[in-house]
Design goal:
Length: 121
């Protein structure tokens, strides 16, 4: 069930660095918002694939469910309900719901599944 896959971990680290660079230096809403959300599900996917021996589809589905769940929590404004003041938690959880984020998550997962299919042959 558990493993360590160096290749997947490298993908995760590269995407993490890219996400941090976007968060720190990019102010364009399309890149920071939608592209960042697109990349974050790919990044999480490769993080899980670094440590878990699951089939790509199951890992992708799990990441998509987690992403949708967090977006639903944003819809009900969970950070306000729980009176969360910690900025790091607010950044991870997000603070505003968007239907476009759900589309970005789906496109990110679709990209991962296509990439996995193409590279597994």
């Amino acid at each position: 069930m558990f493993t360590f896959n160096y290749r997947n971990f490298i993908f995760f680290k590269v995407l993490l660095i890219l996400e941090l660079l976007i968060a720190i230096y990019c102010k364009h809403p399309l890149i920071r918002g939608l592209f960042g959300d697109y990349l974050v599900v790919i990044m999480i996917y490769y993080f899980f694939r670094s440590f878990l021996l699951l089939k790509p589809f199951y890992t992708a589905f799990m990441v998509l469910i987690i992403s949708f769940f967090i977006e639903i929590l944003q819809l009900i404004n969970i950070t306000r309900i729980l009176n969360i003041q910690n900025n790091i938690i607010k950044i991870v959880m997000g603070t505003s719901f968007s239907w476009l984020d759900l589309v970005a998550y789906c496109l990110g997962i679709l990209t991962v599944l296509i990439f996995e299919k193409l590279t597994s042959s």
